[in-house]
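Data follows
____________
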Amino acid sequence: MKINKHFLTLCFLGLTLSMYAYDAVGHRIVADIAYDNLTDKARAQVDKVLGKRGIVYESTWADEVRSDNKYAYSYQWHYQDLDENMTTADIQKLLKNPKAEGEHLFFALDTLTTRLKRDRNDAEALKFLVHFVGDLHQPMHMGHKDDKGGNKVDFNWFGKKTNLHAVWDGALIESEKMSYSEFSHYLQDKFEPRKAEIKKCNILQSVEAAYAVQILIYKYDTSDTSNYHYVYRFAEQRDEMLYRGGIQLANILNAIYK
């Protein structure tokens, strides 16, 4: 049978993009929830800067530019190492002194927020901020330094070799087989009873919530190799982190564009 080479190329490209898109789904969920919770004034401004619903479509931009040497400085902005047994005071100290351990995620959030307050039309700062608020609510982006946030922790996911960080970046989300918009609507319906409570949370409380999940992840008994059980065990934490990320992003943008 003669196989069209162009067809094969398209198939391969589609596979590559779909694999890449797993991580993208999480960021789009966070951005979509945020967009639905912006004030009219804030929504008008972000649409002006990035186009209608642009914060959703541009939420993956910070990952995409990592391949551009021009943005090499931003690589370490995606994570903040949090060690074991940190207290609220320890975390608060890091947030107040975001360069204390290098220019990482806390530094990026502080810097980008300041940039947007100074220039409401700073599209680059807005795209970065949208992405990094999402990263803030992915617990393994605040993992341990010695294993690079779980990147060095091997994990077998339904017969495929991967790592702990990748499981939390995308595999757990992909397990639900929902589009980003379906997942966003599902989470907003699910957490509607807690919306007022979560909306009151500040950045410190968001970090504490993600750190609490990080602790649970590292404590998980890895001798249990059932991926179905892993999904069942952490589905609630995954859902809450995504929802918290969306609400926190909305809070930040509403404050900047008030």
Q: What stands out?
A: The two ends are 63 Å apart (CA to CA). The mean pLDDT is 92. Residues 5-36 form the longest helix (32 residues).
